């Protein structure tokens, strides 16, 4: 409990008697049962070793929290018409999205990996454990201020892309409902021209990441800027461990931070 208080104090800061609301939020967070938000007090993170800055937490949200999150999205009435399958919000996010951002931070803080390290090289040298998110990203305020919710019907996915440069480093993607495979492919840059077959093979290499309902993907550094991500849900493309995945409706939540104007 003391360790949890320390982490939450780091997140919310010190409170004084004149800051009653902040103090109440801190107490509520401490007394809250983490299992109602996170699926485990020590979330199981997996580093995608082929791509620097790409992390997967398969057990991010409990089934109960997934269900309530879908209800909260439904209550927004964003998708009452079949033609509407995407909703964006900037700045002040819905309360449930702000709470979800807090859950992302908690999942990092409660992990066995080093939260808030300066850079990946320092983490490996000093602790022999990888860093989930650099400190300047983990402790920025707000952690995220832009939200996209997408609803995909069977067969619908996303084409390969790198998120726009108008957003800062550090992006979180939460998957709900249908499982799927997200593929990552290397971006060709001026500093990485194709000169031989080995480089061409590297550019054509696809790294598959299996996303289960309630999972969280973190992308920063190379994963955010130097790799495209896509989800092709056409027949024959959604295969994991030799078995084609039965596609159902999938909802995704993407959380990002807008770049500050110069």
TrEMBL record:
Disordered, as annotated region: 1-38
Superkingdom of origin organism: Eukaryota
InterPro entries, A to Z: AlkB-like, AlkB-like_sf, ALKBH7-like, Oxoglu/Fe-dep_dioxygenase_dom
Domain (Fe2OG dioxygenase) ranges: 143-261
Residue ranges of the TM segments: none
Compositional bias segments (type: Basic and acidic residues): 1-12
GO terms (BP aspect): DNA damage response; fatty acid metabolic process
PROSITE patterns reported in the protein's UniProt record: FE2OG_OXY (PS51471)
A GO CC term attached to the entry: mitochondrial matrix
Biased composition, class Acidic residues, residue ranges: 16-31
Similarity comment text for this entry: Belongs to the alkB family.
Name of the protein this chain belongs to: Fe2OG dioxygenase domain-containing protein
């Amino acid at each position: 409990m003391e360790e949890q208080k320390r982490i939450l104090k780091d997140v919310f800061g010190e409170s004084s008697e004149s800051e009653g609301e902040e103090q109440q939020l801190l107490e509520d967070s401490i007394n809250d049962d983490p299992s109602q938000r996170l699926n485990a007090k020590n979330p199981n993170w997996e580093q995608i070793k082929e791509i620097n800055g790409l992390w997967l937490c398969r057990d991010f949200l409990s089934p109960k929290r997934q269900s309530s999150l879908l209800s909260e999205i439904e209550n927004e009435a964003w998708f009452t018409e079949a033609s509407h399958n995407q909703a964006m919000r900037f700045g002040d996010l819905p309360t449930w999205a702000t709470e979800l951002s807090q859950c992302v931070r908690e999942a990092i803080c409660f992990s066995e990996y080093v939260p808030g390290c300066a850079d990946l090289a320092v983490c490996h040298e000093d602790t022999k454990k990888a860093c989930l998110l650099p400190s300047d990203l983990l402790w920025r305020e707000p952690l995220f201020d832009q939200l996209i919710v997408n609803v995909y019907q069977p067969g619908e996915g996303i084409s390969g892309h790198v998120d726009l440069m108008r957003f800062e480093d550090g992006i979180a993607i939460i998957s709900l409902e249908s499982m799927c495979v997200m593929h990552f492919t290397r971006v060709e840059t001026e500093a990485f021209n194709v000169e031989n077959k080995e480089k061409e093979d590297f550019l054509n290499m696809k790294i598959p990441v299996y996303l289960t309902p309630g999972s969280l993907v973190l992308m920063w550094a190379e994963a955010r800027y130097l790799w495209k991500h896509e989800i092709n849900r056409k027949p024959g493309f959604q295969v994991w461990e030799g078995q084609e995945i039965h596609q159902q409706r999938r909802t995704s939540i993407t959380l990002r931070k807008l770049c500050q104007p110069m």
